[in-house]
Write a structure and sequence with these properties.
By secondary structure, the chain is α/β, with parallel strands linked by helices. The protein has helices spanning 28-47, 53-86, 88-95, 156-170, 174-184, 201-224, 231-259, and strands at residues 5-9, 23-25, 106-112, 123-129, 137-139, 142-143, 145-151.
Length: 261
């Protein structure tokens, strides 16, 4: 299950300000943009009731794309909350993670469709060196951040626990780990092996987090008498709720526009 994850260390130098470290939803910016786009598309439908069918189809296709972005935001929120309920100790250890110099680091998590993956592995953690200093982590979300992408699949939370383990070791040991990474994986051709050498402390921490999560999940079932909700059931519920909300909003806007005529 954990053989298809990888750690990627990229060389890129940009400096910005630090923010308070927390586990964060990696879709936050995309969701805000999607909401605004849906509002504009909805308005176009309202003011152009006689638009050509070809244009209407394009608008509906765009609305579907933006709706999916919001769905993935809501799914990620729901799964992070589920992880916190199942394994609060692991969650809060990552939520309060600091680098070697005591600076808090944001961990941005996205649960993504396999088709959207930039690396064809089911779990990926992205760390980039920073221009600030060798101990600061950077990702596409800015300075003092780590980006984690997990495929939407039945084992998504197990994979997240595994990636959290990698992150737990690497963030406070980034400079030393970069040197180890360069020496250990220089000649490796199997991408899935990266981060999982027998001598790799981050790989051992990832395995430890994964095993702890499995124990916590069993304890959660015994304590609550319930199975955690399956990921595709959550996604279906989210999509259905969004469709209903969008349709309701459109009908309300339509009724409002007619009342003003």
């Amino acid at each position: 299950m954990f053989s298809k994850c990888v750690l990627l260390l990229f060389l890129c130098l940009v400096a910005t300000e630090s923010v308070i470290g927390k586990i964060r939803n990696g879709y936050t910016t995309a969701m805000a943009s999607a909401q605004e786009c849906l509002r504009q598309l909805n308005q176009r439908l309202l003011i152009n009731p006689d638009m050509p069918e070809s244009e209407r189809r394009r608008i509906y296709a765009a609305m579907k794309k933006h709706t999916e972005a919001i769905a993935h935001y809501q799914l990620t929120d729901a799964l992070l909350d589920q992880f916190r309920m199942i394994s609060p100790d692991l969650y809060y250890r990552i939520d309060q993670l600091m680098d070697r110099r005591g600076r808090e680091t944001d961990i941005y998590v996205r649960f993504i469709p396999e088709a959207d993956a930039t690396v064809m592995l089911s779990g990926v953690s992205f760390f980039r060196p920073s221009a600030i200093d060798e101990d600061a982590s950077r990702s596409r979300f800015g300075e003092f951040t780590v980006a984690i992408d997990i495929w939407i699949c039945d084992t998504a939370l197990n994979l997240l626990a595994h990636e959290f383990g990698h992150t737990m070791h690497i963030v406070p040991n980034l400079a030393a780990y970069r040197r180890y990474y360069s020496e250990t994986y220089r000649d490796r051709v199997t991408v899935s092996h990266i981060g999982h050498s027998a001598s790799d402390a981050s790989g051992r921490m990832a395995y430890s987090f994964g095993q702890q999560f499995l124990r916590d999940r069993r304890a959660f079932r015994l304590r609550t008498g319930k199975q955690p909700q399956r990921i595709f059931a959550i996604l279906k519920k989210v999509r259905n709720g969004l469709r209903e909300a969008i349709e309701s909003s459109f009908q309300e806007s339509l009724a409002s526009s007619k009342s003003l005529e």
